[in-house]
C-alpha cells in the first residue's frame, strides 16, 4: 500500500480513505490524519453520538428520546432535528451546545443524539 497510516485506536493497518477522513474497518474509528498530532487533542477531543459516529462543529443531529429539562416543565421531544451544533468540553457530560426552536440555548449529552 502507498500509505503507512494505522488506526489511532486499535492499530489496524487496513485503514482506508473515506472523503476527507480515514476509516478503520475493525473498530469503526474515523479521523483526519492532518489533525492527528501524536494523540494530542485540541478542545473537547473526539465526541461520538449514540451510534458511535464522530461529531463535529456545525453538524446536524437528531434527539433520540424525550429529554426532560432540569428546572423547567418543558420536554425536548425525541426526533427533533438540531442544526449547527457546537462541541464543548462539558464537565457534567453535556458536550453539545445548541439552540432549539421554542426552547432556546441548551446543552445536550452526545449519548442522546444521533448524527443526521
From TrEMBL:
Residues of the Protein YjdM C-terminal domain: 47-116
Pfam families in UniProt: YjdM (PF03831)
Superkingdom to which the source organism belongs: Bacteria
InterPro entries: YjdM (IPR004624), YjdM_C (IPR013988)
SUPFAM superfamilies according to UniProt: Prokaryotic SH3-related domain (SSF82057), Zinc beta-ribbon (SSF57783)
Listed name of the protein: Alkylphosphonate utilization protein
Species of provenance: Komagataeibacter melomenusus
Amino acid at each position: 500500500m502507498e500509505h503507512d497510516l494505522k488506526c489511532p485506536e486499535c492499530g489496524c493497518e487496513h485503514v482506508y480513505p473515506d472523503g476527507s477522513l480515514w476509516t478503520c474497518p475493525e473498530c469503526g474509528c474515523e479521523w483526519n490524519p492532518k489533525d492527528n498530532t501524536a494523540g494530542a487533542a485540541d478542545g473537547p477531543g473526539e465526541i461520538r453520538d449514540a451510534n458511535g459516529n464522530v461529531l463535529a462543529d456545525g453538524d446536524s443531529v437528531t434527539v433520540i428520546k424525550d429529554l426532560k429539562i432540569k428546572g423547567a416543565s418543558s420536554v425536548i421531544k425525541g426526533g427533533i432535528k438540531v442544526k449547527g451544533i457546537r462541541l464543548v468540553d462539558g464537565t457534567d457530560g453535556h458536550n453539545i451546545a445548541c439552540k432549539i426552536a421554542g426552547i432556546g440555548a441548551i446543552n445536550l449529552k452526545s449519548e442522546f443524539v444521533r448524527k443526521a
